[in-house]
Amino acid sequence: MGFGDLKSPAGLQVLNDYLADKSYIEGYVPSQADVAVFEAVSSPPPADLCHALRWYNHIKSYEKEKASLPGVKKALGKYGPADVEDTTGSGATDSKDDDDIDLFGSDDEEWINFFSLQESEEAKRLREERLAQYESKKAKKPALVAKSSILLDVKPWDDETDMAKLEECVRSIQADGLVWGSSKLVPVGYGIKKLQIQCVVEDDKVGTDMLEEQITAFEDYVQSMDVAAFNKI
User: By the 8 A CB rule, do 225 and 206 touch?
Assistant: First the structure.
């Protein structure tokens, strides 16, 4: 079990394939599992690994909240597909020579004790509140869910941009309350075409700001994103 060497192209490809139908490493919310894997990835995955890049950018947005995310961090080899050999042990010597101190990814008992002592009562309270809110949302079954239909215009850099790959990257964005619909290419001039794509969102779970942040993160393909139409359902 594991992803292999996440600093290698092969390891990143395994991660990308694993995330093709998942938003997170485990479960349906960011957790210490995502923190452990995120810290093992040395830099953002390349644009062609759109699932891994989408996940990387999303987890990076939790940089200041890593310590309070739910779950208990395990060894890196405890995550990922079962049919991949865990090679994390072979890279232990290299990680000791790394100039960057990995505060969140280390399993060293000294760091664990350090953070246990430093965690304030306020941080504990916030963590407990977030866990309680999450459990409450899971248990709640609202009679009516507010939804919206959104038409997005996604513009490439130029007429040489691979529009099929651009659409693949956009559709790789997954979230609870987000459903992608039909799409088409619309000419904008000088041989350039924009991607016009429909989606339906649950208003309390997915917003246009989140969509714009994740779509424009594919900066090798996407120049900008605009909301062409927004209708309540």
Answer: no
Q: List CB contacts of 92: < 8 A, sequence separation 6 or more.
A: none
Distance CA 37, CA 11 (A): 11
End-to-end CA distance of the chain, in Å?
A: 44
Global confidence as pTM = 0.49
CA-nearest of 50, 211, 226 to 155 is 226
Q: What angle, rounded to 10 degrees, do the helices at 50-60 and 163-171 form?
A: 50
Q: Are 135 and 119 in contact (CB under 8 A)?
A: no
H or E segment and range at residue 33: helix 32-40
| Token digits of residue 111 | 């760091």
CA 58 to CA 62: how far, in whole Å?
7
Band the pLDDT of 5: cuts 50, 70, 90.
confident
